[in-house]
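Key idea: predict the complex, not the pieces.
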Amino acid sequence: MKFTFHTSALLACAALALPLVVSANPILDGYKAETKGTFSAAAGEKLYKTVGPNQLSCASCHTDSPKNAGKHAKTNKAIDPLAPSANAQRFTDAAKVEKWFKRNCNDALGRACTTQEKGDFMTYVLSVK
Amino acid sequence: MSLKNAVVASLIVLSCVSVWADGGPVTPLLPKMEQECANCHIAYRPNFLPKSSWQQVMRSLDKHYGADASLSEADTREITDWLNTVAQELGEAPPNNRITEAFWFTRKHGTKHIRPEVWRRASVKSPSNCQACHVDAAKGDFNEHNIRIPR
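Result:
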């Protein structure tokens, strides 16, 4: 009886832990493997709000929170939310993620982002619930 | 034929007719082009620029009217090749390869037709925002009977 209880408790713990394991993002893992360091959501949030030389920040189009639907600062085109908590499609396609980091870092910051910055940024956006 | 079937059949016929209403069918866009362009703005029609302008646009996507719109080499080539087959070398290339500076655009969108104040509305914002007024622009419909100027 006791053994059965322990087994089911273990199973319950595993079931609780499983989503945590599954929620790790392979693209973020790739950046982590590249930098061999740690990423910070706070640094990512700071980057998200940094206004660059073109008077643009990530927030200019994606709004104050990556959870919100945004709007292209120039063309008015609607932009789906960036946070996977609001839009499960985000950060699932590595080529797409790289394409947009290249474009948007250039537009908002006037330069390419480092892998550390991409990791911080993703850590922040993935943490927004 | 039941009445319901007859109604459905006539609706299908009518929807086909409407595609032809503005002087012929609309050339379907290359899906890749539509997908990539429409990330930021509607995919403009290939006949909006002469072929030489499109070639320059596709060669300078990293500096695309003030934004970096660069694509992978394969996607750039696929879209360029398609534009080369459908775009024509008609008329003068507009300044800076801008559709909104083409002679036909400025003639149709001048102060005679549209008050300057309209362009400044938040709902319009930019002359490149075709679908603000041409409600079915994304489907290639620029028929002047299908225009709704937003407030």
